[in-house]
Amino acid sequence: MDSTEWSVISILLIFTVIPSCLSLDTIRPNQPLRDDGHDILVSSRKIFALGFFSPGNVSHNRYVGVWYNQVPNQTVVWVANRDNPVNDTSGLLTIDGNGGLVIYGKDRNVPLWSANVTLSSPNSSVVKLLDTGNLVLLEDEVSQNRLWEGFDYPTDTMLPYMKLGLNRRSGLNRFLTSWKSQGDPGTGNCSYGMNPSGFPQLILYKGTKTWWRGGPLSGMPMAITARPFIFNSTVENNQDELTIMYGVISDSSLTKTVLLGSGIIQRTVWNDRWTSIWSAPAGPCDYFGNCGPNSNCDPSNPSIFECTCLPGYEPKSPADWNLKDGSGGCVIKTGVSMCGNGEGFVKLEYVNIPESSMARVNMNLSLKACKEECLRDCSCTAYSIANDGNESRKVRGCVTWHGDLMDVRNLSNVRAYFFVRVNSTVLALFAKNSNGSVSKNGKLAISLASVLVFFLVIFFVHWLVKKNRKDKEIENNYVFRVATLPTCFQNTSADLDDESRINSELIPFFDLRTIAAATNNFSFSNKLGAGGFGSVYKGVLSNGNEVAVKRLSKNSGQGIEEFKNEVELIANLQHRNLVRIIGCCVKDEEKMLIYEYLPNKSLDFFIFNEKKRSLLDWTRRFEIICGIARGLLYLHQDSRLRIIHRDLKASNVLLDASMNPKISDFGMARIFKGDQNEANTNRVVGTYGYMSPEYAMEGLFSVKSDVYSFGILVLEIITGRKNTGYYHEEYPNSNLVGHVWNLWREGTALEIVDSSLGKSYLVNEVVRCFQIALLCVQDSATDRPTMSAVLVMLSNDAALATPREPAFVFKRTYTGGDPSTITTEGAKSYNDVTCTIVEAR
Ligand SMILES: *[C@@H]1O[C@H](CO)[C@@H](O)[C@H](O)[C@H]1NC(C)=O
Ligand SMILES: *[C@@H]1O[C@H](CO)[C@@H](O)[C@H](O)[C@H]1NC(C)=O
Ligand SMILES: *[C@@H]1O[C@H](CO)[C@@H](O)[C@H](O)[C@H]1NC(C)=O
Ligand SMILES: *[C@@H]1O[C@H](CO)[C@@H](O)[C@H](O)[C@H]1NC(C)=O
Ligand SMILES: *[C@@H]1O[C@H](CO)[C@@H](O)[C@H](O)[C@H]1NC(C)=O
Ligand SMILES: *[C@@H]1O[C@H](CO)[C@@H](O)[C@H](O)[C@H]1NC(C)=O
Ligand SMILES: *[C@@H]1O[C@H](CO)[C@@H](O)[C@H](O)[C@H]1NC(C)=O
Ligand SMILES: *[C@@H]1O[C@H](CO)[C@@H](O)[C@H](O)[C@H]1NC(C)=O
Ligand SMILES: *[C@@H]1O[C@H](CO)[C@@H](O)[C@H](O)[C@H]1NC(C)=O
Ligand SMILES: *[C@@H]1O[C@H](CO)[C@@H](O)[C@H](O)[C@H]1NC(C)=O
Ligand SMILES: *[C@@H]1O[C@H](CO)[C@@H](O)[C@H](O)[C@H]1NC(C)=O
Ligand SMILES: *[C@@H]1O[C@H](CO)[C@@H](O)[C@H](O)[C@H]1NC(C)=O
């Protein structure tokens, strides 16, 4: 036999063997999924997997479930036959006329579980697992028409892009329900979802008891606990649906919200392990009815009693109240009836509005009409604005309560409010307290401001909804950019096969003459600056676009290798916090990179300049910190490649016209392949003061060396001082990091905050950034957080770890100019480090 025959045979062999031992991406009528220990269905980007499993591997019961494909400990997020397990490994998940998608045990005639769908053409139906974790049954592969989807039948986990709530057309209400126990995914006692009656709200039930209230559609605490750059949520309330859904902004963060059997709802993020970033109920006030009816629960001062009666009410049982038992709640003191006796309303702010399943809603009434309506109806005890989740509707509705007001509690960060009915005496009392303090002009200013805020909110929500629609469309149709220009290292534009067209984001090739013309023949007046590897010029292309041209000097340290490296790297990177490459140019000795032009120069130009630094207020600086973190996270995780920048510093962070940071200069970056986590180099390149100890001393670099540089950068942004060349009389032996560390331990870190910030910063935020920065510069690389953890820390208020002592490398008295970039060859130990100053900016 000749070799071609052999290969034909082996191909045939492969095709006959594969289906039983490789992961599938589709289930077809003739291609079921068996419980044979091999078969799994994997989503296209390999994020989720589906197959048979036994929870915790403790019982013989087999369930069909969805879990994260790449998380080492199987984390199940969805279960099909949760109440009907297969009791051995005979299980089979298949498509048939018996209910669409079905699970059989030994008995292949009666399904243990079925999706209850009648298929019109069973032979063409397919089942796919999407990258959102949604299992879908499609009518056929062409129409993509969804007959059934797992997201409509959630178990205990809410995933991003999964909707909870009511489908008004089918009547289906999607709830989370807890597992029975860790080893049993059966339907447990707790549930969480939308209660559509009265004024809709999210409620967590334990058994039949209301356990915690997730809040009404407006001001839902769940939606707003984190800063919007990790999560955003959308509420839909229209004739089709009444739902809530949340999305993630950074794709790299695996996140889920789980209802635990103990009645706790918890949101976790994956970074090496599942970390909780939010959970509820979290304090006594969160438990429904902790303070009984008609009282407010205020957790702000835990040492005093959290319950207070609403205005005009008094404790039902003063004795219990004195013993700090508020469960009896409050009642109205008998007096003159509150019906046509000069009664009115007192406004309560920053509170969760009362439980509203019995409330009445009228979307046609304005707030003013609402007040009149409530005043007229003597049974009405309170009223509020009914925001139905559609902020683009300018007429907002009216919600009124009749009877006891339950579960009012303080929400410090939500500006929700309602008005409670009080008698004339109480009204006068409250009116006196609030009268006179606000002048007429003040009132006018406030109402103007609230109108402005209102429109901003409308605009924002509108934008979110629109964006959200767009993303939905993209879910199924992956869009690739098709470039028509030749790549840098391609001699001709011809013969690119489709594969490479898709895989590399092609970048245009510029002619040397074009670039020379654009930069005025590399004139001195066009020069923006000079770096270690050449000069940077401003250019204007014939179409008027401004560009920055990095012209590598012929004898620069950056050889063709680094140049290729940078081009290949950056050509594949697209992120709004990374500088964008527009093209390149190679001609004989000349090598040039053409970037987008950023008018605001680099970060060091601002933060280290006496006059310019006041242009960056704290909010701006915080946004810059977050932007750099996002850019770095993208390099480390999101870009499909794992890229270590290796030279992150203030001068490599450029600012665009609206001061958004963009990381630049990838000449020294390294790509890590596959599972590689750490590498060793005998050519240490980087910048004095920003290099992690393990990198500077042993040449070891990893994502954690970038984290270290990030930490230094954050300290510099807060303090406006350089880590290198930093000197303080009281601490002559420490650099900036050392000084901050000393102050931090003494609890006086705020002393060193850039004085140009004045008192305009948020103390909490600054302290938090100090702590995050100190966590990033810890001596041991394993102690330092990953960038995804850093982003999580930046975006919520959960407690942070206590930093350990940072690395004090490179503290030497320095007498020369400003040392920036060093290159050390073969550095093996601290003593061997030889510093060659290549660049002085
Ligand atoms: C159960 O066993 C499977 C296969 O041996 C393994 O992949 C999975 O991680 C185990 N699950 C748990 C929770 O230990
Ligand atoms: C599994 O369940 C079937 C009925 O569904 C029953 O006949 C069989 O005995 C069970 N097997 C075991 C090992 O429990
Ligand atoms: C299918 O219908 C049966 C009987 O009506 C029901 O018990 C089962 O829960 C349904 N399955 C699903 C997935 O809805
Ligand atoms: C579906 O396929 C089965 C077996 O492959 C065949 O017997 C049956 O006629 C097909 N049904 C339709 C509606 O095409
Ligand atoms: C669920 O509730 C029932 C009845 O109240 C109780 O017997 C059972 O132990 C509860 N199960 C769990 C897992 O809490
Ligand atoms: C959240 O924001 C991301 C990125 O901006 C967007 O893709 C997603 O659709 C948004 N999700 C929701 C639920 O609005
Ligand atoms: C995986 O599970 C084992 C055993 O339950 C546990 O010790 C380990 O910490 C878990 N690993 C992660 C990353 O959660
Ligand atoms: C109004 O209520 C307060 C306290 O709840 C009470 O002291 C007062 O007598 C009442 N006034 C009238 C006019 O009923
Ligand atoms: C709690 O709510 C009450 C009633 O509106 C309000 O007076 C108080 O200022 C709030 N406390 C906090 C800490 O927001
Ligand atoms: C609200 O107004 C719409 C049209 O403006 C009307 O059809 C509807 O009946 C009104 N609803 C109530 C409760 O008044
Ligand atoms: C919101 O209200 C506006 C105006 O009434 C309407 O045009 C729009 O369709 C509504 N949006 C949704 C999602 O219901
Ligand atoms: C509060 O001020 C308004 C107008 O300034 C006045 O009409 C009203 O009598 C004042 N009320 C009290 C209780 O002083």
Automatic annotation (TrEMBL):
Pfam families: B_lectin, PAN_2, PK_Tyr_Ser-Thr, S_locus_glycop. Its EC number is 2.7.11.1. SUPFAM superfamilies: alpha-D-mannose-specific plant lectins, Protein kinase-like (PK-like). It is an enzyme of class 2 (transferase). It is a single-pass type I membrane protein. Residues 522-800 form the Protein kinase domain. The chain crosses the membrane at residues 444-465. Keywords: ATP-binding, Cell membrane, Disulfide bond, EGF-like domain, Glycoprotein, Kinase, Lectin, Membrane, Nucleotide-binding, Receptor, Serine/threonine-protein kinase, Signal, Transferase, Transmembrane, Transmembrane helix. One of its GO terms (molecular function) is carbohydrate binding. It catalyses: L-seryl-[protein] + ATP = O-phospho-L-seryl-[protein] + ADP + H(+); L-threonyl-[protein] + ATP = O-phospho-L-threonyl-[protein] + ADP + H(+). ATP binds at residue 550. It is found in: Cell membrane. Residues 1-23 form the signal peptide. It comes from the Eukaryota. Belongs to the protein kinase superfamily. Ser/Thr protein kinase family. This is Receptor-like serine/threonine-protein kinase.
